[in-house]
Design brief:
Blueprint lengths: L2 E3 L6 E3 L2 H4 L7 E3 L4 E4 L13 E3 L4 E5 L12 E3 L4 E4 L13 E3 L4 E4 L3 H4 L7 E3 L4 E4 L13 E3 L4 E4 L13 E3 L4 E4 L2 H4 L7 E3 L4 E4 L12 E3 L4 E6 L11 E2 L5 E4 L18 H33 L1 H9 L9 H7 L8 E5 L2 E7 L5 E7 L6 H12 L10 E8 L5 E8 L6 H5 L15 H20 L5 E2 L8 E3 L5 E3 L6 E2 L25 H4 L6 H17 L14 H8 L24 H12 L2 H22 L10 H15 L12
Helix pairs in contact: 4-5, 5-7, 9-11, 9-15, 11-14, 14-15
Length: about 675
């Protein structure tokens, strides 16, 4: 027997070492994603023909056996997501054909053996993240000249990035976040021009951010929560605020205006300026005091006039201009029924035409509805402090009175010509576009990735984390390219207090959200947290790929959408997916390259292969949806992991290479 695969089952107990020890001709042993416990049997060291060993995703424990060093033919060793403890065996350095090594998400401690970090055969990935490893990164890392991905994040490493890493010129992904590294990053990274993704966040790096990073072809750069200082570059990745994070570096200045950093001040070098300083400092201090007194006086007067007006004004500092009631009336044809494109709990949305000829969406609040005014303030506050390609952009607002003298409040957004995700998932009989029939797997995957990216930004990349609180298909809008934009922040909450626990900050409020998408903990008086959004996202995923709303009539007597999918998962998943996904809709002139690629896969592959690929993809997606919508909030996966997983699922379905797979347990 050359290959023995028993992965992704529910097999439990110890690994049957008696049986495995006799399979001396094995070249591939795959036992991943089961429930195996106990130690790894030493007899595995006798399988010297093994090229691939996958024991990941179990609950194996104890130290890793040094006999791994006997497996000199190994090219892939996957041991992640177990409970191994102790140190990394230096004997792994004897596996001189090893290309991929993943020991992440265990309880390993101690330092990295130089025999392992210097194993020059590693060319695909070395992942030792989420352990308790200590000490500096050995200089032998410079031997990894062919390695594409290095992940040492979420450990207790110290010291500086070794200068020898400059020899790793094949690196594309470098993750070193959540350690205790220090020093500057200029010299070590300068030669790594092939890098596509860098995460150095939550360390103690200092010095200036090197400008040469702006010349790299980076898709992600996270330098947040370090001690960088000086001017932020203005080229390349530094112009893309959705792919860049520099939060928590209080000494930075300059950069593009969207970063909202202070202007860099020029240093005074000559001693002749000392006299000027002695005069300027008291003068500036006096001016500042006067300004503070003036601001306090203005604030007091405004507070006496209208507390609500003050709240609105302070929430809207980021908007360039405002629009009058008469202009909105004209642009929406008098708020006519012909221009009405939707309505919600706090108001109605109209299609309008702005002064420069652009089509816009005008959300008019129903101020008779209790809480509508607060919703207006909350939505303005949220939308004016965030900026992301997958969040609905606010253009301007109107806070005025109508023709009868009544208070009038409205928000003006970019118009999304392809409507909402809800309209695509559940088209009505009078819908002019045959939406559902042409709504492909890849389009749904792309939308799921867009929504996940927006939530990941709100949860982890805003100065103050934001919980959306009302994620559902009708609040996901689609532009002409079918790119998703999350909107309706009327219930959004800012998490003002950081938490040292594993669960980020939360705040206690009343029940928030829409029926079917509200996490169960909210209904029992639980606190609003980012994990509530994760639950809503999980339900959204299940709805997108089953075509069933969580409020469907079939869901009663204890049956929910989550339970409905769980009962079919994974063997009968194809029996419950949206039937339109099994048909393969007609061709469309507006299809993008990925949708065309999906169609080509279906045409090129035989019927059996095509069906297998489709089923594998849908099972993986449903696994994400079920994990996110787990009733236990602490068991839900976080959105940063979801983004990586959904990218991997899409790329795997399209036959593309992806190095960012982070599996859900």
């Amino acid at each position: 027997m050359a290959k023995f695969t028993m992965g992704s089952n529910l097999i439990y107990g110890n690994i049957p070492f008696g049986m495995i020890g006799n399979l001396v001709n094995l070249n591939n042993l795959a036992m991943e994603d089961n429930l195996f416990t106990g130690n790894v049997p030493d007899v595995i060291g006798k399988l010297q023909n093994l090229q691939g060993l996958s024991l990941n995703g179990n609950d194996l424990s104890g130290p890793m056996p040094p006999l791994f060093g006997n497996l000199t033919s190994l090219t892939k060793l996957l041991m992640e997501e177990n409970s191994f403890d102790g140190t990394i065996p230096s004997s792994i350095g004897n596996c001189y054909n090893l290309q991929t090594l993943n020991l992440s998400r265990n309880n390993l401690s101690g330092t990295i053996p130089i025999q392992v970090i210097g194993l020059s055969s590693l060319s695909i990935s070395l992942d030792i993240s989420y352990n308790s490893l200590t000490g500096p990164i050995p200089s032998e890392v410079g031997n990894l000249v062919n390695l594409m991905e290095l992940d040492v994040s979420m450990n207790n490493f110290t010291g500086e990035i070794p200068s020898s890493i400059a020899s790793c010129t094949s690196l594309e992904i470098l993750h070193m976040e959540h350690n205790m590294f220090q020093g500057t990053i200029s010299q070590p990274l300068k030669a790594l021009r092939g890098l596509l993704e860098i995460d150095l966040s939550h360390n103690n790096f200092s010095g200036q951010i090197p400008s040469f990073l702006g010349t790299f072809s980076l898709k992600k750069l996270d330098l947040s929560f370090n001690d960088f200082e000086g001017e932020v570059p203005k080229e390349g990745i530094f112009t893309n605020t959705s792919a860049l994070s520099i939060l928590g570096n209080d000494k930075l200045c300059g950069g593009i205006p969207e970063l909202l950093l202070p202007t860099c001040s020029k240093k005074l070098h000559s001693s002749g300026n000392l006299l000027a300083l002695k005069v300027l400092i008291p003068a500036i201090t006096a001016i500042i005091l006067i300004c503070i007194m003036f601001c306090c006086l203005v604030a007091y007067l405004m507070l006496q006039k209208s507390r609500t007006s003050t709240s609105i004004a302070s929430s809207l500092e980021g908007l360039r201009s405002r629009v009058s009631y008469s202009e909105l009336m004209k642009s929406t044809n008098g708020f006519s029924m012909e221009n009405l494109i939707g309505s919600g709990s706090f108001g109605s949305v109209y299609k309008g035409l702005s002064g420069d000829g652009k089509v816009v969406a005008v959300k008019v609040l129903n101020l008779q509805q209790e809480g509508a005014s607060k919703s207006f303030i909350d939505e303005c506050k949220a939308l004016t402090t965030i900026r992301h390609r997958n969040l609905l952009k606010i253009i301007t607002l109107c806070s005025s009175v109508d023709l009868e003298g009544n208070d009038f409040k409205a928000l003006v957004f970019e118009f999304m010509c392809n409507g909402s995700l809800d309209q695509w998932l559940h088209p009505t009989d009078d819908d002019k576009q045959p939406r559902a029939k042409s709504f492909s797997i890849v389009q749904r995957l792309n939308i799921a990735i867009d929504v996940a990216s927006s939530l990941n930004y709100l949860h982890y990349h805003c100065q103050t984390p934001i919980v959306h609180c009302d994620l559902k298909p009708s609040n996901v809008l689609l532009d002409e390219d079918m790119t998703a934009h999350v909107g309706d922040f009327g219930l959004a909450k800012f998490l003002l207090e950081a938490s040292s626990s594993a669960i980020p900050s939360s705040t206690s409020v009343g029940l928030k959200g829409s029926i079917g998408y509200i996490p169960p903990e909210y209904g029992t008086g639980g606190q609003v947290s980012i994990l509530g959004d994760v639950y809503s996202y999980g339900i959204l995923i299940l709805e997108m790929f089953t075509g069933k709303r969580p409020t469907d009539d079939i869901f009663q007597d204890g049956l929910s959408l989550h339970k409905f999918v769980t009962m079919a998962f994974p063997k009968c998943i194809m029996d419950i997916v949206d039937p339109s996904l099994l048909i393969g809709g007609g061709e469309n002139d507006d299809e993008n390259g990925e949708v065309i690629r999906e169609r080509e896969i279906i045409k090129e592959d035989d019927t059996q292969t095509s069906a297998r690929k489709r089923e594998e993809c849908l099972v993986a997606v449903m696994r994400v949806g079920l994990s996110c919508s787990n009733a236990e909030s602490r068991e839900r996966v976080t959105m940063d992991d979801v983004v990586n997983i959904m990218h991997a699922i899409r790329d795997s379905f399209l036959g593309l290479k992806n190095k960012n797979w982070r599996r859900i347990r």
